[in-house]
Amino acid sequence: MKWESVAALGTLPPRTRVVMGANLISSVGTGLVQPFLVLYLTRVRGLSVGTATAVISVIALASLVGGPFAGRLADGVGIRRTAALAMATAAVGTSGFALVTTVWGAVLAGSLYGLAYGAMLSVWNVVIAGSTEGRTRSAAFGLQFVALNAGVGLGGVLGGLFASTADPGRFQWLYVTDGLSFLLAGALLVAAVGRPRTAAPTGPVPGRTADVAGRGYGAVLRDRQLLKVLALTLALVVVGYGQLESSIPGLVAVQGLDARVMAWAFVANTCCIVLIQALAVTRISRTGPAALLAATATSWAGCWLLLLLAMTSGGPALEAALVVGALAVFAVGEALLAVALPTLVNGLAPEALRGRYNGAYSAAMSAGLVLGPLLGGRLLAGTHAWLLPVVLGLGCLACVGGALRLGRQASTAPVAPRATPDARTEETPGAPDRLEHMEGGGVR
């Protein structure tokens, strides 16, 4: 068995490896508290279930603002200051939950954390894209996802061993520890980024339908190729990611299965993600992003098919096995998506607008995470719960077609020349080929 992740990690620049370490640290902290927020707010702080779930919605809505704001800030004052602000805000937000005693306190903490959550997606992507290029960049995004899931998984285990609803102080320590993890990760991230030097702007790609060399989100939104990527991102998150922690557990509850089935399904999901990236990150990074997105949508369609079969299997043991298998299949798409989308977005982004491009991508992801549960909840609320896997499965198949079409269009698009060494910066050393490896072909 060859662990491609080890070899791929060795090919990354030293500061990119430091960024991976920072991501791992913050992910462990996130894992300490992520599974317990609703439980903590209801069982420990005495808030209603409706209020607790509303706080989750507040976090998602705030992240819609955080991503674009961080993108603009990164292009304006630099990624170093933006990273410091995002990590500090995340630390204050998550630590604030330790002191929550009222509804408004929970909303305030959730708003701060949500702003930081959206900002951090932009920050991580900008830093990684700025220190890598080509296939190394794709591998770096894959390894980032490994660090994220491994860290959240480890943190979840540690948090589960330490948390106790009988002792509020234990939850407070968990949230404070999460805050400290953001501060430590932020310090490493700021050190890894270093001080910026002036960069020469990159021009628009010849033949593109819009001149994206101007500044501001107006220029970003005139990039038609990016808009297609963002539309596909939104669709994929609505029919996939947006359902993972909302409608899929809801479907399991509707079927009357034991809650432990969902717990084991998430364990299988996390293990599969880590194994797929660890064993195949190099091969994944050599595959065109459009092909990866088509494979993502296909695997998620397979997940919905397995869940539909679980609803009609007639036996609790088989139902449980199908649910666990469905989330394992879902993990395949997650592993591929984590490489494909940020690679696509940063392949399109000129250096002067890289922050805003990633901010727009963060907003599309956040919008999908808001709309997905709303759609899933609507489908589950009726008397025909089977509509959930059917409708969303068909949506996944439509996304397969969208990804393949995106790849065909990209295969005829012109490619910009690489930036000269003089145009490189300490923050973003190297402007890779725009649209590099975007075609929907196979392994290169």
From TrEMBL:
UniProt-listed InterPro entries: MFS, MFS_dom, MFS_trans_sf, MFS_Transporters, Tet-R_TetA/multi-R_MdtG-like
Biased segments, Basic and acidic residues type: 421-444
Entry keywords, A to Z: Cell membrane, Membrane, Transmembrane, Transmembrane helix, Transport
Domain named Major facilitator superfamily (MFS) profile: residues: 15-413
Gene Ontology annotations for the cellular component aspect, listed alphabetically: plasma membrane
Bilayer topology: Multi-pass membrane protein
Protein name, as recorded: MFS transporter
Subcellular locations according to the entry: Cell membrane
Signal peptide: none
TM region(s), chain numbering: 21-41, 47-70, 82-100, 106-127, 139-161, 173-193, 225-242, 262-281, 290-310, 322-348, 360-380, 386-404
One example GO MF annotation: transmembrane transporter activity
